[in-house]
Amino acid sequence: MSIGIVACGALATHIAEIVTQRSLDVTIYPLPPLLHNRPEKIAAEVDALLHEIKDKHLRCAVAYADCGTYGALDAVIDSHNVKRLDGNHCYDIFAGKAEIERLMAQDAGTYFLTDFLVKSFHRSVIVELGLDKYPHLRDDYFKNYRRVIWLAQNRTPELEKAAIDAAAEINLPLEIQAAGYEGLTTQVLKLISN
Q: Where in the chain are all domains bearing CATH 3.40.50?
């Protein structure tokens, strides 16, 4: 029986690539990435899906960091006796917790992007915040930010243009930092190990 992973939809494609490359016996159950806009719902959604899949697999795991649940997800993790990804959010997973802490100490007004957020920025951020209809609210939402850092997992010309466009939509300068997949790969392998 395979390992079942309840995954954040923003990470599921990346995890599927890791699983395929390494020929792992893993089944991925993605939850909608827009749950990040309502983090208070993440723990309950993960709990429900774990209940649904637990008898189908030898083991289950959760491919989420805390993601703004303030420990609610950890309570679910403990109740199911499974593991989750380390860190407070996916930025920790891609760049490493120490690097994110360093960047935030350098400038707490940092807005982070991953490849997923770069690709989906308009839908995930602009539309979800209502800025497509009320663009004048942009400064209210982003007034405390001073820069955008794209933690690039796979820097391509298309993604770079999308990152530039995303930063422009919220009127902030863009910095690009190579993050790659090493952090996620290491954590996924740890997640599925005994």
A: 3-85
Residues 79-127: tens digit of each pLDDT: 999 999 999 999 999 999 999 999 999 999 999 999 999 999 999 999 9
Calpha distance 34→155 (Å, rounded): 23
Alpha-carbon distance of 64 to 42, in angstroms, equals 9
Predicted pLDDT at 1: 58
Amino acid (one-letter) located at 66: D
For domain 3-85, give the fold: Rossmann fold (3.40.50)
pTM for this structure?
0.91
Q: How far is CA 16 from the centre of its chain?
A: 14
SS3 content of the chain, % helix, strand, coil (to 5): 55, 20, 30
Under DSSP, is residue 107 helix (H, G, I), strand (E, B) or coil? coil
